[in-house]
Design brief:
The protein is of the alpha+beta class. Helices cover 44% and strands 23% of the residues.
Length: 100
C-alpha cells in the first residue's frame, strides 16, 4: 500500500505502470479477478499479476489492469491476516519443504 501511494501518482504522471505479482490466495483476499477484467494497459495504473506454478515452473496466470484508486480500495477492503496465522502457515510450509 505505501508503495502504491508513494510511487503511483508519479508513475501515472510519467505514463508508466506498476506491476504487482502476488499469489492466488493474496489476490483472492483482495476480491479476486474483476467481473470483467481489463487487460488494456492504457486503462489503469497497476498491472496485477497472479502467476501459476506448473511442473515446477512459473507460468503466466491471471492478470488484469486496475486504476490506482481501485487497487487502493481493494487493499483497504481486504481482511488482514494476523501475524500468528501468517507465521503458523509459513512454519507449516517450511516443514513440508524440509520433509518433516
Amino acid at each position: 500500500m505505501p508503495q502504491l501511494q508513494i510511487k503511483g501518482p508519479t508513475l501515472r504522471r510519467w505514463h508508466s505502470k506498476i506491476a504487482v505479482a502476488v499469489d492466488r490466495p493474496f489476490f483472492a483476499a483482495l476480491g479476486g479477478p474483476s467481473v470483467q477484467p481489463s487487460q488494456d494497459l492504457d486503462a489503469g495504473d497497476v498491472v496485477w499479476l497472479v502467476p501459476e506454478l506448473q511442473d515446477g515452473q512459473l507460468i503466466r496466470g491471471h492478470w488484469e489492469v486496475l486504476t490506482l484508486e481501485a487497487s487502493s480500495e481493494r487493499l483497504l477492503a481486504a481482511d488482514a491476516v494476523t501475524r500468528v496465522d501468517f507465521e503458523r502457515v509459513l512454519q507449516q510450509q517450511l516443514q513440508l519443504l524440509r520433509g518433516e
